[in-house]
Amino acid sequence: MRHLNNGRVRRHILGDRLPRWAVIGSVVGLLSLASVAFLLGVGVRLYEFWGWLVIVPGTAVIAGIFGAGLVPTVGTLWLVSLWGYAFPPLVGYLSGEWMGAGRYTSPRMSGFAYGSARAELLGGLETSVNFGLALAVIIGTIGYVAGSGIRWMATRIQSA
């Protein structure tokens, strides 16, 4: 039986440099693209099927396969949550085009509907910290472990 050493634990927590930056860069690029698309009026729905059901778990599994690290994986998944809950109300707040049922008040997963853009933004930030961070930790950990298991099995099969 092998024992874990500090280097191996650190590598699983922080990840290898190139995969870590690749995962961070790809998520930041995706959110940048989603931001531009949202500002242009495209309906960006990261919380529908392609968001939390495909993109987020897929990112976690891919991060595990490539050894990007658990902390960067969870952090990038939380960024997706933060973007979804805070970016649309922030745009509505800054542009002054906020309305009760408009496209700037899109985070309705929890069913909150505040009376002002500022309240919607603060509610979105609170929800992304309370709910989004917990969900990012759960999905990120499960996905990262699954991806690491896939990588482990692939190396075992390859060396056999």
Structure description:
The chain has helices at 6-14, 17-39, 49-66, 70-95, 117-159. With 160 residues, it is an all-alpha fold. Helix 2 (17-39) runs antiparallel to helix 3 and helix 3 (49-66) runs antiparallel to helix 4.
- Which descriptor suits the 3D outline? elongated
Portion in beta strands: under 5%
Number of helices: 5
Helical content (DSSP H or I, runs of 4+): over 70%
Which residue ranges are poorly predicted, with pLDDT under 50 across at least 5 consecutive positions?
A: none
Tally of domains? 1
Order of helices and strands: HHHHH
How would you sum up the major sheet?
A: none
Number of strands: 0
Helix/sheet category:
mainly alpha
Query: Average pLDDT across residues?
Result: 84
Termini gap: 19 Å
Radius of gyration: 18 Å
Question: Any descriptors?
Answer:
single chain, 160 residues, mainly alpha
Brief sketch in words of this structure:
This protein has 160 residues and is mainly alpha-helical. The protein has helices at residues 6-14, 17-39, 49-66, 70-95, 117-159.
